């Protein structure tokens, strides 16, 4: 709204400021394309104004987007240009910001010594500003964490403890780093409690956001997902050690392994789950008894009232603000208890109105089903084996994220490129040994397997992994030969689908075959001429392919400034018409629109 007013008033300086502000909101939500668009427009305005400080701000912001996207060389070029301008202006605070930004790029490139030097140099520049005590650089904490200097990280974090008026993103960052440092020195219980604080704040933030896609990946130092990952890792390790559940985790399952599963689920397909629940509300009518409904409304109204009083209480100072925060935390616990109870007594209502992960013991699995859920940590993979009633086993797989990603990409390469002769029997067997060999010992051949992947495992066809290799890969025994496998985006989306009554359809088949890709296709030409009779392909059907380019650019390997766009080509699919006609015949249906679409 402010931007609209400043555009009408034609005040370029304020226009650039607002563009950067909107960009920062988009950036914090993980909406990087939108953020980049706003930042680049701000940079253009700043350049037209010849406003060097504004230019440096926009350059730093653009660099931050490219850093988040993993394009570190590009991020570095923007940061270095910003630093040059800030040095010319001799503004210590801005110099410190640019140095810190460069330090983060070095950190993500694993150039830890270079990163540490930049953060220390940034500290010295900040100290020149005077009047504000330098309490520590979050980036320096991450250097200590990455180089196993956990005691140093904890000492610095002690100085950095959040003030009463610290904003939520800083609190998430602080509790996450504190959790990682405590985990590093083996204090798993204390670490899990710190991660829970960070996750709870993230969940509170997420409830207020309309466009939730990208939320977990956004945020400081690798995204908000770090706290969730730290939480399920520490809970998993505690469960393996046989530790007992803490009071603060009781709402998330009956024991620590159930808690670990719950928070593993917490980032899987959440946006999809919420969209499914919102859509299902239109036809799945569920109501609560009046007294329970009144209890729910009372809690929600009180929480809403607190949100409305936030600004006025903030102005009253620390004591009033802390009291309101404590009241909010108490109400949030009441709501969590209400949701937990409602899940058991009115599961469909809870699923639709509070679409959050559910504990594993409440999953609606059948007697002959086994759910395998993967959760990838930085240095370990955890595999939850879930049957009706809850988690039956937790397998710890000592393989790093980096190693797993390398193996999966190498395995998928010949399948993605069609170079099947390069299929690696060795990698197919290695991945089977890593991911499935222990689990299948507990699964009968008659049981059905549901796989919930994590990260890069979402690209992997588990059926193509190899149980017993032979000299010719065609003679080998594959997982698909022995196991019946289906996939789910998350256990919670699977549960929601099963809780709702399946929608009914009047006709049993919808099919699309032999689509038209190109305006020069004879079938399309005939349609435009008003001819209704079937028109056949010309002999050279490859003339009528679909051509396009990928939406994600690739950097040129020899010239970093050059951007390449990969061409994609889809050939005509005449065989699919024969296939669709055969399927329609099986259903005793005439293949005609709107249910069967051919040559369209």
Blueprint (SSEs and pairs):
Layout: H1 2-9, H2 12-28, H3 32-49, H4 52-68, H5 72-89, H6 92-108, H7 112-127, H8 138-146, H9 150-160, H10 168-184, H11 188-207, H12 225-241, H13 256-265, H14 270-280, H15 290-316, H16 318-345, H17 347-353, E1 369-376, E2 381-387, E3 390-397, H18 401-417, H19 425-435, H20 437-440, E4 448-452, E5 466-468, E6 477-478, H21 479-482, E7 484-487, H22 491-499, E8 511-513, H23 522-528, E9 546-549, E10 554-555, E11 563-564, E12 567-570, H24 575-586, E13 596-598
Parallel strand pairs: 1-4, 4-7, 8-13
Antiparallel strand pairs: 1-2, 2-3, 5-6, 9-12, 10-11
Helix pairs in contact: 1-2, 2-3, 2-4, 3-4, 4-5, 4-6, 5-6, 6-7, 7-8, 8-9, 8-10, 9-10, 10-11, 10-12, 11-12, 12-13, 15-16, 16-17
Rg result: 28 Å
Biggest sheet features: 5 strands, mixed
Main sheet: which strands, in order across?
3-2-1-4-7
Task: Show unreliable segments.
Answer: none
Bin the helical content.
55-70%
N-to-C terminal Cα separation, in Å?
A: 44 Å
Shape field: globular
Task: Give a summary of the structure in a few sentences.
This protein has 600 residues and is an alpha/beta fold. It has helices at 2-9, 12-28, 32-49, 52-68, 72-89, 92-108, 112-127, 138-146, 150-160, 168-184, 188-207, 225-241, 256-265, 270-280, 290-316, 318-345, 347-353, 401-417, 425-435, 437-440, 479-482, 491-499, 522-528, 575-586, and strands at residues 369-376, 381-387, 390-397, 448-452, 466-468, 477-478, 484-487, 511-513, 546-549, 554-555, 563-564, 567-570, 596-598.
């Amino acid at each position: 709204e402010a931007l609209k007013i400043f555009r009408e008033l034609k005040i370029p300086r304020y226009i650039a400021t607002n563009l950067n502000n909107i960009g920062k909101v988009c950036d914090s939500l993980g909406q990087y394309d939108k953020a980049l668009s706003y930042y680049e427009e701000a940079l253009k305005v700043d350049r037209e104004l010849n406003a060097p400080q504004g230019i440096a701000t926009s350059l730093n912001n653009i660099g931050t987007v490219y850093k988040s996207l993993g394009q570190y060389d590009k991020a570095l070029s923007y940061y270095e240009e910003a630093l040059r301008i800030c040095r010319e202006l001799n503004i210590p605070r801005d110099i410190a910001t640019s140095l810190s930004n460069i330090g983060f790029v070095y950190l993500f490139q694993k150039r830890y010594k270079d990163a540490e030097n930049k953060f220390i140099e940034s500290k010295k520049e900040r100290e020149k500003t005077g009047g504000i005590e330098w309490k520590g650089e979050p980036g320096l904490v991450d250097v200590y964490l990455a180089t196993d200097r956990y005691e140093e990280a904890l000492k610095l974090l002690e100085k950095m403890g959040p003030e009463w008026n610290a904003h939520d993103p800083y609190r998430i960052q602080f509790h996450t780093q504190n959790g990682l440092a405590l985990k590093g020195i083996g204090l798993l219980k204390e670490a899990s409690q710190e991660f829970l604080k960070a996750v709870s704040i993230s969940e509170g933030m997420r409830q207020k956001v309309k466009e939730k896609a990208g939320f977990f990946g956004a945020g400081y130092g690798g995204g908000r997902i770090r706290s969730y990952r730290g939480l399920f890792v520490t809970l998993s390790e505690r469960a393996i050690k046989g530790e007992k559940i803490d009071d603060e985790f009781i709402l998330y399952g009956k024991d620590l392994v159930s808690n670990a599963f719950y928070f593993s689920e917490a980032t899987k397909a959440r946006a999809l789950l919420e969209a499914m629940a919102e859509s299902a509300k239109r036809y799945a009518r569920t109501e609560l008894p009046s007294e329970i409904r009144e209890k729910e409304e009372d809690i929600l109204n009180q929480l809403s009232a607190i949100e409305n009083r936030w600004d006025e209480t903030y102005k009253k100072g620390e004591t009033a603000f802390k009291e309101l925060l404590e009241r909010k935390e108490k109400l949030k616990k009441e709501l969590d208890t209400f949701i937990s109870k409602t899940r058991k007594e009115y599961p469909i209502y809870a699923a639709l109105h509070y679409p959050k992960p559910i504990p594993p013991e409440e999953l609606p699995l059948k007697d002959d089903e086994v759910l395998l859920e993967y959760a990838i940590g930085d240095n370990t993979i955890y595999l939850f084996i879930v049957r009706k009633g809850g988690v039956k086993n937790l397998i710890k797989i000592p393989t790093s994220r980096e190693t797993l990603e390398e193996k999966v990409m190498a395995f998928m390469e010949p399948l993605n490129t069609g170079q099947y002769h390069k299929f690696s029997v060795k990698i197919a067997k290695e991945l089977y040994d890593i991911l499935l060999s222990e689990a299948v010992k507990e699964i009968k051949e008659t049981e059905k397997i549901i796989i919930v992947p994590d990260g890069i495992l979402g690209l992997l066809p588990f059926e193509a992994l190899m149980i017993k290799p032979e000299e010719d890969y065609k003679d080998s025994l594959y997982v698909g030969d022995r196991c019946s496998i289906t996939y789910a985006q998350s256990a919670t989306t699977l549960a929601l689908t099963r809780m709702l009554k399946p929608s009914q359809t009047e006709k049993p088949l919808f099919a699309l075959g032999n689509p038209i890709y190109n305006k020069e296709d004879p079938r399309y030409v005939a349609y435009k001429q008003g001819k209704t009779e079937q028109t056949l392909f010309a002999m050279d059907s490859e003339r009528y392919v679909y051509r396009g380019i990928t939406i994600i650019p690739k950097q040129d390997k020899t010239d970093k400034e050059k951007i390449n766009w990969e061409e994609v080509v889809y050939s005509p699919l005449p065989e699919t018409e024969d296939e669709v006609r055969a399927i329609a015949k099986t259903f005793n249906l005439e293949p005609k629109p709107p249910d069967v679409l051919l040559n369209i």
